[in-house]
Amino acid sequence: MSPLALVTGAAHRLGKVFALTLARRGFDILLHYHQSLDAALQTKAEIESVGRGVMLAQADLTDPRQIESLLSNINSLDVLVNSAAFMPSGNVDLLSIENWDQSLDLNLRAPFLLAQEASKKMNEGSLIVNITDVGVQKAWSRFPSYTVSKAALESLTKILARALAPRIRVNAIAPGFVLQSDIVPTEEWQRLINRVPLKRPARTEEIASALEFLLRNEYITGQTIVVDGGYSLV
Questions:
Q1: Cystine design at 105: which of 2, 12, 40, 62 (Cβ 3.0–4.6 Å)?
Q2: Is-catalytic flag, 219?
Q3: Residue ranges in the chain whose pLDDT is less than 50
Q4: Of 33, 146, 219, 231, which residue is the catalytic one?
Q5: Residue 98, CA distances (Å) to 62, 101, 115 in order
């Protein structure tokens, strides 16, 4: 029986990259998505093309009941990657309560609740990986709720690592600039890339390799691997 990995937000962007990375390493995938069914089906087909099994799992992770049901039919789990995220823009005096709550519910509370549920079914030597952001080291005033939620997620990573050891390891990956978001205009994206010491965005395989490293090295827990081209230095 193949090991099983749950990747949240796995239909597209980095979530898809992580799901495919795990599939290529021999994991069957529980592929979570929220609304992007077409993208989820495309990702499912790509995973199946490398010979791995895929189960689609639709859920709104801001609803604790749906998080509980997401894992209700799973008997055993080996890897959890918390990749789903919400990044609303808006300065401090304009950001709505709804956007604040949605960011904290999806980016912070959901990984905590998923870790709670997953840990009940995880095997000895299992791994939880939280996807944070290099932005937690910055005062990103345009994205207050996102930045706060990801900073708190790094703190939660340490707490979970201590609480779940030695049976389960918990780490985080903090990517820098990888895939341009729809909310970032091209001119602004290029300005940000020009500030990166390596003068380019990360390739998706460079972010994926951090996950592969955490899978291989079983003596790392409670750590955040920053893959940012040096952006945290400026």
A1: 62
A2: no
A3: none
A4: 146
A5: 12, 5, 24
